[in-house]
Amino acid sequence: MNERELSPILDEIGAEALTGAPDLWPAVRARLEAARRNPARARRPLGWVRRWAGAAAIVLLLGVVTTALMQGIIDLDPGLRGERAVDLVTPLDASQTRGERTITLNWGYADANRLALNYTLRDAAHPDEPLAERPQPPSVRDSARQPFQAMSLIHVDESVPGALTMTVFYDARGLVGAAETLDLEVWFPLEGGGLSFEVSLPFRPARLVAEPLTVTAGDIGMTLEDFRVTDTMITFEVCYAAPQDGQDWWPALRLSFDGVRMDGAPDSRYASFLQHEGARTCYTGGWFLAVDALPDEIRLEAAYLSTPFHWTRENLAYIVEAWAALGVRAEIVPDASGVTLSYPDGLPGNLDAETYDAAFDAAVARMPDHGGSQRIDGPWVFTLRP
Amino acid sequence: MTLDNQEEMRLDEREAIDRLRRGQIDALAPLVRRYQTRALRAAYLITWDAMLAQDVVQAAFVRAYERIGQFDPARPFGPWFLRMVANAAVKAARRESGLASLDAPLDRSPDEGLSLAELVADPAPGPGEQVEQRERVAAVRAALARLSPEQRAVIVLRYYLDFSEDEMARRLETAPGTIKSRLHAARRRLAGLLGGRFSLDDWEETHERA
Prior knowledge:
A: alpha+beta, Immunoglobulin-like, Alpha-Beta Plaits, 3 domains, eight-stranded mixed beta sheet, six-stranded antiparallel beta sheet, 40% strand, B: mainly alpha, Arc Repressor Mutant, subunit A, 2 domains
């Protein structure tokens, strides 16, 4: 074998492993928007995967696993957690084998915000070893062959040798008005082909889909274009006429139910992104929350619009100081192309969003010229009474 | 590809980079679509984890946007970006190793030869060349899986992304002698893992002389 032969072989190995790889641009754009708005959160690589995997491992060590169904839904996001999740999900228990690989679909869940699929991959060739590689998540289509986009978070449990259990989430916001049962085709890409499952899941409709609502602060109007509440998640889209100065203007949003702030836990916030639609800027995002009943009043408030601060060593020093005051150790470290923040001890799971936002805002305020960040104060307040 | 096409691509790239430097996020889209496949495959070959590779490449594009002011527009974007991907992939693989047990197979003897059964996942009969090529792919895949992320990275940079040793040293800010040593060790390890089924002698000799 020589060099000329190795290059196409490497290309083939890469291509096989990444069959059906999606266009990365939408995900890159979403991350870029998130990074510009909130670098500390956006820069945690695979934060969800790592935190959840760690949590699952801890629970297994404690011997809390009770049933096969519980595996994989032990400690997901607040909307699909613990016993509550057991009541919500549908056991599927369907297995297929191709070569040495067996895939078992354990359970599924569908509401008007998201789908969730939990499955286990086993490798008969190496029953006592961790799987050497993680396959791509399955692609999912409905009976009209419309594909669902995977959300950028996945729960991974590798605590059982020879098995990899994953929970993958898909954006289901296009499904308002869907039938009571959702028929899905789930296709797993595997080496040399794939495995296809047909499953039916009960569809839990939205508890609330708000009508568009516009409010004005100063001379900027903001419209709540979409707001929907399901049993496990709340999603929204707000659009506004930000200054046309070539910068991205992000809203600082707060959500409360009957006066109690709901966007509290760090693991409740779903990645958000900004899009430009002509002269309008539209901001989409959401929170993972357990909603068992609607409150009398839902309040979504954009306290202000701001542009991201400049990502420099000098500005990051203010963020490091702010984190230190909260007991979080952060370091400014060089990386391949500049500087970034590193968290040697990780981020605490109990740091609530209000504390974080206040510390972050105060740090930016202390930066000379607000670190290059500009701000337009609101507030824009949307009050919904279901 | 003709020179005209190459020049056209370079002009498109320059325009995209100019727009990026003016803060236009959407100018990143054509660069993502141009480089994502190669970047994903390179990241996968280093991390050995398809999901992690996607995460690495997405993050690298974000970093590229944020650091575009440090990029010399007179130079091609690809090597600058792909070096960033390779660095990030090694870091990510090391960071995730506790979860993914990426290095677990290295508990085997470092230069252990693999049996044909291990090397060839699906030895279905077929035309001779096709079978041989499949065997080679399977063998290299199995061998790469047993290298460390750092060793895979030098193999990928040199033989997949086609960086010269000098270029690798410059872009990785590492002494040329260190790169040469790492590459040599990675090649030796790979050859050992291939167990003589496919000889790397010609390949090694060529590069030892270089």
